[in-house]
Design a protein that fits this description.
- Pfam families: DUF2510.
- The protein has about 260 residues and is α+β, with helices and mostly antiparallel strands.
- It has a domain at about 145-255: OB fold (Dihydrolipoamide Acetyltransferase, E2P).
- Helices cover about 35% and strands about 30% of the residues.
- The strands form two sheets. The protein has a five-stranded mixed β-barrel with strand order 4-5-6-8-7. Strands 1-2-3 form a three-stranded antiparallel sheet, with no helix packed on it.
- Strand 2 (about 15-20) and strand 3 form a beta hairpin.
- The protein starts with 5 loop residues before the first strand and ends with a strand.
Length: about 260
């Protein structure tokens, strides 16, 4: 409906008229044949309310102007205080950071510690090289009498790490003994016949390549270090304990 605002017949009740506000029907109605009431009016603010509104607006404007004046007057002092506060905060933050600069004494101590560590490593390497050179030097091994060797064979643990020379033959070197050790019959003297070697021992190699070319029944000369005794099972179902030796050098001199 595009009619101007006014009273019109009520679409829902022909006996009534209803007010049209120009956009929509209002809830106000009147009998069709009576004088329609005036159109509804919007409430207007009272004179007192209007006066109060003007006073509030005026007070707010004065408040804003006063604030601007105070800010202009105190701006210089506040700026100085702010600069001082920022500088103090920056100084405090900087002083709280850990120092990454070492003093001359700290640098010297660090260098001395590094030098000492390097010196210890070099000394350890030199000692290891000296031990290896001695291990490969035949002159560092004792030639024992049969009696002295019998004492070692009796209690090899008491003579552990003693370097001696042994002669003998390989009595067993197979899958039972493993690739790093074999059983031998030995003595501290070299005999002309293999059956004269009557001390049953275990010979162990830290490097299997050292005994890779050794086989059962080989006649050998060995430069060894005395080690702890070993107990192993025999083919007869029992067990036996024998001296053991770590071989450092070995030479095959023949076959039995």
């Amino acid at each position: 409906m595009n009619s101007p605002a006014g009273w019109y017949p009520d679409p829902g009740d022909p006996s009534l008229v209803r007010y049209w506000d120009g956009n929509q029907w209002s809830p106000r109605t009147a009998p069709k044949f009576s004088t329609p009431p005036p159109p509804p009016r919007r409430p207007q603010p009272s004179a007192k309310a209007a006066k109060n509104g003007k006073l509030v607006a005026t007070g707010f404007a004065l408040f804003v102007v006063t604030g601007v004046i105070v800010a202009l007057i105190g701006g210089g002092s506040d700026a100085g205080d702010d600069d001082t506060g920022i500088a103090a905060a920056t100084s405090t933050a900087a002083s709280s950071l850990p120092s990454t600069t070492k003093s001359a004494a700290e640098v010297q101590a660090s260098q001395q510690a590094a030098a000492a560590s390097s010196s210890r490593a070099a000394a350890a390497a030199a000692a290891a090289a000296a031990r290896e050179a001695e291990r490969k030097n035949p002159a560092a091994y004792e030639q024992l009498s049969p009696r002295d060797f019998a004492l070692i064979a009796k209690d090899s643990a008491a003579a552990k790490n003693r370097k001696i020379v042994l002669y003998g033959y390989v009595a067993q070197f197979d899958s039972v003994t493993g690739a790093n050790q074999f059983r031998a019959s030995v003595d501290s003297q070299q005999f002309g016949s293999w059956y004269d070697y009557d001390h049953n021992v275990i010979i162990k190699a830290s490097d299997r390549n050292l005994i890779a070319n050794v086989v059962e029944d080989d006649l050998v000369t060995m430069w060894v270090e005395v080690d702890e005794p070993i107990t192993y099972d025999t083919t007869l179902g029992g067990s036996t304990t024998v001296p053991s030796f770590k071989v450092n050098m070995i030479e095959v001199t023949g076959s039995k």
